[in-house]
Design a protein that fits this description.
heterodimer; A: 65 residues; mainly alpha; flat; B: 689 residues; Amino acid/polyamine transporter I
């Protein structure tokens, strides 16, 4: 029961984008360390990331009739 | 054993589905339970998804589950992100389902419940779902390119330009008609107006919270927003009962139209985080929540459908919009059966998140099935009303007369009895001053939803349910309105940037203000005319929107058919070719009627000439005569716009046929732009070399 609730909560967070920053950090850890020689910068702060994420999300046709 | 059981189950589903469709189609003169509609829909969807969609995926598209998708290859943690199929289904559905599938079926219910229901069911499984799924597939195979880009690459520059221009115009018409729906819902209703107005500061509070107070805490902020929204519905009732406050929100349609335009302009130039993004969050929660609630209520309550299967208005004399059953039912219900707009989401946005081609069927085909179901629920909500009440709410004063007593006499004379007392009682229950001539579909949908919710969850709260339903419709209509204005602004800036590069800079303030003003005045013009039109405006704007939307669908299906033929799949080209042919037939014949019909309520030129004659003979009342010149100009403009849409449609169809003809004759054509196969790293059974 508890695990189901937790899964539901994770689903809700994922659907709403609540966990977008955590996912970004995971992506960063996975992809930016192995080939760090190419371009290396520290990960964005939560505020910075969120700003970019939101602006990008609204670029283009995102909603229908 | 298992396969046999499987067979038996599918045969049972088919029989049940056939019985339900037969029951709906053959029922005459008796009330029919809404559960039959739900049963028919679920059986048809199940069969179509299990067999037709699976067959298309396996044989026509030849889905390759070992192939890396753009989300895997181009993963950047931001816009290209591999996303779980259920999450992506949610995102995709939230993006495609707007107010369209709610408004269209409500208007089309004037023909009776049958034509709209059949078109919603069969149009979706054979047309709309196929379009969405194939477009999603093609864009996934092309690095998530947009529909316009694919048209340019695969057919040539003509197709690409037509898609771009088509998208821009459909946006203008769409926003105008949706604006009109909101204005008509708020007209002289302080409760509705104050609730809708409150959604703006609420969205801003949520926006500021997500940006500065607790950055990125989306759920927290949204929860606050949803609670505030529900409170605003209650507060609206309180304002409505307060004599001093209520006049602040009691306005004519025209005043409200100007407010909507100012709002649209502000929303297009304000930063997205302040208004657009938070409003979208709120509208998505409210939308998904309300639709679920409505489905539950219909299943719990099992209301009787009171509208006859067919009404006499199939002959074209309908009060809500003029025009015969064919082709106008197919134009009126675009979203929910087949909607070209979806192709814009299915290309460009969703493919960037797709983890595996295996999910294309569920997301492309499945999400559209769900939207079709939403349209069906709107149809149920419209047809459970007494037909007399339905027509009294939706018939414009220009058709049934401005006096209540005339309106009920006229509607009762059609065989749909209704009385002034009945309408007044209903208006009192819903907390409105009057429900006569509240055109646009939103009020009648809200009455239908309120009566379903009221019966299922408590009769006393009817007025609250009604205004909740109005808020629910208004909040995502306004989201479409500001998102659309913004997209229109970007497209315009992009186009003007070709002439004067500085205009193309999306952050240069003069360009932002200029292009936003241009887009707002584009839809604002049609909204203004719609509001001053004594026939309600919906009669003109909704068919125009339908034609434009179906034209966009035809562009998407042309691109798909062209690519199928170029991929040597001529024998499967009918999968997209037949829906395309049907769209060409209905769009062209609807356009022909709108241009050439001599019926003044159908033909634009006929309507204009009629007004010219009346104006010249002096038989018009002074107030009507004062707006007549504008209406005449507008009708002529609408006629030319229709000509333009249909010309664009034929242009792209011929371009597609030209490319296909050349290909089949062995002449050079633009090559397939499919990205080369790269194996997915996530597929375990793929053996590394």
């Amino acid at each position: 029961m508890l695990s189901q609730l937790k899964a539901g909560w994770r689903l809700l967070r994922r659907l709403s984008g609540d966990d977008a920053y955590e996912r970004y950090l995971r992506h960063y850890a996975k992809c930016h360390q192995s080939d760090c020689a190419i371009e290396c910068h520290t990960p964005l702060s939560k505020k910075e990331f969120y700003k970019q994420w939101q602006d990008e999300k609204w670029n283009g046709v995102k909603r229908c009739c | 054993m298992n396969t046999q059981l499987n067979k038996i189950i599918w045969i049972a589903i088919s029989l049940l589905g056939a019985a339900a469709v037969g029951g709906i189609a053959l029922n005459r003169g008796e009330d029919i339970n809404a559960l039959w509609f739900v049963t028919a829909a679920l059986c048809i969807y199940a069969i179509a998804y299990r067999f037709y969609a699976a067959w298309i995926a396996a044989n026509v598209l030849v889905i390759d589950t070992t192939r890396a998708t753009p989300a895997e290859r181009l993963d950047n943690g931001k816009d290209f992100v591999p996303t779980n199929r259920w999450i992506l289904f949610g995102h995709h559905f939230a993006a495609i389902a707007g107010p369209g599938p709610l408004v269209g079926p409500t208007l089309a219910a004037q023909f009776g419940y049958l034509p709209g229901t059949l078109w919603i069911l069969f149009g979706a499984v054979l047309g709309g779902c196929v379009q969405d799924m194939v477009t999603l597939f093609l864009s996934t195979r092309r690095d998530a390119k947009s529909l316009g880009q694919m048209a340019r690459d695969e057919l040539g520059p003509l197709g690409g330009t037509a898609a771009l221009i088509g998208t821009f115009f459909i946006m203008i018409i769409l926003i105008a008609v949706l604006g009109l729906v909101v204005v008509n819902a708020m007209k002289h209703s302080p409760w509705a107006t104050s609730t809708v107005a409150a959604t703006i500061p609420i969205a801003m509070i949520v926006g500021v919270y997500m940006r500065f107070i607790r950055p990125g805490q989306v759920l927290e902020a949204s929860a606050i927003g949803v609670i505030l929204l529900l409170l605003s519905v209650v507060a609206g009732g309180w304002i409505d009962n307060n004599a001093t406050l209520r006049i602040l929100f009691d306005h004519e349609g025209l005043t409200l139209a100007w407010c909507v335009m100012v709002y649209g302009f502000a929303a297009a130039i304000l930063p997205v985080w302040l208004l657009l993004a938070p409003r979208d969050y709120l509208s998505t929660y409210i939308k998904v929540g309300t639709i679920t609630l409505l489905a539950l209520a219909i299943i719990m309550l099992q209301p009787e459908v009171k509208m006859p299967a067919l009404t006499q208005f199939i002959d074209g004399t309908g009060p809500i919009f003029g025009g015969k059953l064919f082709p106008f039912v197919f134009i009126t219900i675009a979203c929910g059966a087949i909607s070209g707009f979806h192709a814009l989401i299915a290309s460009g946005t969703t493919p960037k998140l797709l983890i595996n081609e295996r999910d294309i069927r569920m997301i492309g085909y499945g999400a559209m099935l769900l939207e079709s179901f939403v349209a069906l629920m709107a149809m149920i909500a419209a047809t459970v009303l007494d037909p007399g009440v339905f027509f009294a709410i939706n018939s414009p004063a220009g058709v049934v007369g401005a006096l209540e007593i005339d309106a009920v006499a006229k509607i009762s004379s059609w065989g749909f009895p209704v009385t002034v007392e009945q309408m007044q009682r209903l208006a009192n229950q819903m907390g409105e001053a009057s429900l006569f001539a509240r055109t646009g579909g939103a009020p009648s949908l809200a009455v239908g939803m309120a009566s379903i919710f009221g019966s299922a969850f408590g009769e006393k709260l009817l007025a609250l349910w009604y205004h909740f339903a109005i808020m629910f419709e208004a909040i995502f209509i306004l989201t479409t309105l500001d998102a659309g204005t913004r997209v229109g602004r970007f497209m315009l800036q992009d186009m003007l940037g070709n002439i004067w590069p500085k205009m193309g800079k999306t952050s240069w303030a003069p360009s932002v203000i200029f292009t936003s003003a241009l887009v707002v005045s584009g839809w604002g013009y049609f909204l203004y005319i719609g509001v001053i039109d004594p026939n309600g405006g919906v009669n003109i704007l909704w068919p125009l929107f339908g034609i434009a939307n179906q034209m966009l669908a035809a562009i998407a299906l042309s691109v798909a058919t062209g690519i199928l033929i170029k991929s040597d799949k001529l024998k499967y080209a009918w999968v997209t070719g037949l829906p395309l042919l049907w769209l060409i037939i209905i769009t062209s014949s609807a356009a022909w009627e709108k241009i050439a019909s001599t019926d003044v309520r159908v033909g634009f030129f006929a309507g204009a000439n009629d007004l010219v004659a009346k104006l010249a003979s002096g038989s018009m009342s002074p107030e009507k005569a004062s707006v007549a010149p504008q209406l005449i100009f507008n009708l002529q403009l609408d006629a030319w716009l229709t000509v333009f849409f249909v010309a664009l449609l034929w242009l792209i169809v011929f371009d597609m046929l030209r490319v296909c003809g050349r290909y089949l004759a062995g002449k050079p054509v633009p090559p397939l732009s499919e990205t080369p196969h790269r194996p997915s790293r996530w597929v375990e059974d793929w053996v590394r070399d």
